Automatic annotation (TrEMBL):
GO CC entries: nucleus
Pfam families associated with the record: TLD
Name of the protein: Nuclear receptor coactivator 7a
Entries under PANTHER family matching the protein: NUCLEAR RECEPTOR COACTIVATOR 7, NUCLEOLAR PROTEIN 7/ESTROGEN RECEPTOR COACTIVATOR-RELATED
Source organism: Oryzias sinensis
InterPro entries noted in UniProt: TLDc_dom
Domain TLDc: 61-222
């Protein structure tokens, strides 16, 4: 608004001042109009902010708008205001960890793993790096776990170790130390497990430490 005023001031011609009598009624009307314009401007700004909120390229089968709004608000700033693209879905690509790895080959962007188990619990992980086969752990402190069981809970990096993500053709592991993986999935993306870990100081993400996967999705951000 200040910039617009400066532009008008610079562009406008110099004119002689004049005096105009304004009644009290006119003053109130002008104040009312100004308030209405400010309100409309605020509403438009709010809508613009809402429209810039990150969206998914496809309809998720696992998270609704309420889940999405809550979850995306906790993502790192570098991933916000960008569209998220579906790169893997058990409903589309079948239940295969090998396929999951293959679909992410060549990616160089963070990924969001969302799981729904047979008890209808939704949980997962944000990984700073795409999932891949590796002999060593990879990822950064941006990696975190989350669950909507029953309410939203985020488990950030504790700083105790760097066992963020590791995986081979037999399983995918996220978090470790303390007796078990924070999140573990088998080669068929059918059996899973979640234990407390030193990496995230997390509780079990589902209602049971061992669970059966109903569906899983992986999303990645692209700018």
């Amino acid at each position: 608004m200040i910039e617009n005023m400066k532009v008008l001031y610079v562009a406008g011609d110099c004119v002689e001042p004049y005096v105009k009598i304004i009644t009290v009624k006119q003053t109130k009307r002008r104040l009312s109009l100004c308030s209405l314009e400010d309100s409309e401007a605020d509403e438009q700004e709010f809508q613009e902010v809402g429209n810039s909120f990150p969206v998914l390229s496809d309809q998720s089968q696992l998270i609704d708008d309420r889940h999405l709004k809550t979850l995306l608000a906790h993502l790192p700033p570098r991933t916000q205001s960008y569209k998220w693209y579906l790169v893997y879905s058990t409903a589309i690509h079948g239940s295969s960890l090998k396929t999951l790895y293959r679909n992410m080959a060549g990616l160089d962007s963070p990924v969001l793993l969302v799981i729904k188990d047979m008890h209808k619990k939704v949980f997962g992980a944000f990984s700073s790096d795409p999932f891949r086969i590796s002999k060593y752990c990879y990822g950064t402190g941006e990696t975190f776990l989350f669950t909507f069981s029953p309410d939203f809970q985020q488990y950030k990096w504790s700083g105790e170790n760097s066992y963020f993500v590791s995986g081979d053709l037999g399983s995918l592991q996220i978090g470790g130390g303390g007796g078990g993986f924070a999140l573990w999935l088998d080669a068929d993306l059918y059996h899973g497990a979640s234990f407390s870990s030193s990496t995230f100081h997390n509780a079990t993400l589902s209602t049971h430490e061992d669970f059966i996967v109903q569906d899983a999705e992986v999303w990645t951000v692209q700018n």
